[in-house]
Known about the structure:
By secondary structure, the chain is an alpha+beta fold. 40% of the residues lie in helices and 20% in strands. Helix 2 (48-78) crosses helix 5 and helix 7 (278-310) crosses helix 10. The protein starts with 5 loop residues before the first helix and ends in a 16-residue tail after the last helix.
Amino acid sequence: MQAPSSVAGFNYFIEKASRRSLMVVVESGRRIEQMFNLTYEFKLKPTTGQTAIFEDWLEQCRRVYNYALAERKDWFKSRSCQINACSIRSEFIIGAETKRPTYASQCKSLTTARANIPALAAVQVHVLQQTLKRLEKAFVSMWEQKHGFPRFKKAGTMRSFVFPQLGVNPVQNQAVKLPKIGLVKFHQSRTIPDGATMKQARIVRRVSGWYVMLTLQWDVSAPNPMPHGEGIGIDVGLTNFIATSNGLLVKRQRFFKDAERKLKLLQQRVCSKKLGSNNWRKAQKKVAKQHEYVANSRKDWHRKLSHQICQNVGMIFVEDLNLIGLSRAMLGKHCLDASWGQFFTILEQTCLKYGVYFQKVSAHKTSQTCPNCLTETGKKELSERTHSCLNCGYTTDRDVAAAQVVLIRGLAAVGHTVKMLSEGKFVGIPAKKESPCL
């Protein structure tokens, strides 16, 4: 097994990252030019009029999204029944010559609609086109990644819109200049580096206020960390959030569990209010603020822990877990509260920042394999927290042993042999000799 290619491996996670991203542009079908992107998030300080414009644009984007989705859904339903039989359910009759609605065809229809509907004409055209592109990505995810069929968005569920193009010098004196809106002040909590191109701005509505995400692009080569230095393996769990191969144990913080009692009280207050009243909206806002506080606390703890792990190491290996399956299991609420997927994403971003090599390895029977002699010890009960091998007598913490197995698999994946391990070139795992069966 070889390490993943640099471009494909980094593109997979960086496209999903909120802080770092990597874009690959192909020119003339041969030369590949790499662009490095960073997204800076700031809290906006809009006026009352600008807030009203933001809310109106979100509503118009929601209506465009729902109308385009209904057009596509009707076309799919008209092709659902067989040619020689009628469907039990009724569908719209659309002619056979009508082509499937696509992003290009719906953009043309949007141009006609903007000429006849003043509310759509008031919205910047690229913002509405990005909404249609968002729907196109939802259908691509349904076809390629087996996601569910896109759903209609209820009032208030559309929370962001994008300006894909900005003018020259869009940031001026702690204010960002948005097309058709003008200068909007924001709280500049950090300096924006020079020498970058401002590619796009995303306006996001949260319960705590409005935010802008500015994407900056540099025409530089993306970093490509290679396997080097000391490596560590990481095992995640519910008792210990992480256990590393060098013996570090970090207890899991129960962010949602600690706030569950207060959330229950706040949600009971929502139920006691009249639906749609001002007091009902105020009670709902308190619930949303509590959820946002839990999410921010968890993410902040994940970031601090990832920086602690990435210091003085050259390689980090983690388990490739089936997170969706774990979230649907008996302990799904606790798995979602731990948020291992978010931690892995943040850890991967932090590794890119520190120049640390990151890779996921197979999680098959990591807790049932002895890291000293690599023999299977059998399935353990959850209450059994100590690993004790009957074959070689190696004894250690159960989670630490699993992390050591992860490290062994990771080092094998990048080409390090058992002989290199026995020579003490990589510490943090038990010393062992070459086995004749390998």
